[in-house]
Amino acid sequence: MKKDLLEKGAILQRDKETYSIAPHLTAGIVTPEVLRTIADVAEKYNAAAVKVTGAQRIALVGLKQEDLDSVWKDLDMDPGAAIGLCVRSIKICPGTTFCKRGLQDSVAVGSKLDSLYHGKELPNKLKIGVSGCPNSCADSAFKDIGLIGGGKGWMLYVGGKGGAKPRIADRIALSVSEEKIYDLIEKVIQVYSENAGTRERLGDYIDRLGLEAFKEQIDINSYL
User: What are the backbone angles phi and psi of residue 190, rounded to the nearest 5°?
Assistant: First the structure.
């Protein structure tokens, strides 16, 4: 029986025969040249659909297994971490780079987090959302780690998730500077990586440990 092909970034589709792949697009920002390449490859290999995903990627759906290597060669792009126990995606809103409502530079911060953590292996999947203002267009309160920009810095949320048992993230910081936010997120990921059980999501780990104990574990006060 066919199954997902982690090494090729390929997800088996409903027909149990074809696969979907999604090249990685940092911040969901893409050039016209890349769009043309994706369109050309989709046509060449008869993709059943080209779909924008919730992780700000563009998926090619309905590809034959024997074509996957050639598809990736023609795309000349890295796979998005759509499967596996790792940092899956960093969803990023336009922030002060483009949006009139932006209060913080979510594109710069989110892109740096993407370069640091995308694909990093962890006890379970972990998703990050970076929103430049409280409108939270990157769904930050439903991510394992969520940032929301405020007038004086970043609000930090931890433990959110969707799925069959959704969990709203806990806000553990109101105003963290950009200089400190990277170190704080590194600490959260380090503590989670070293202490969570296999396939335990960050929110489940926090619930098992207790929120106050988790805040002590990451030494939250040293970043405020």
Answer: -65, -50
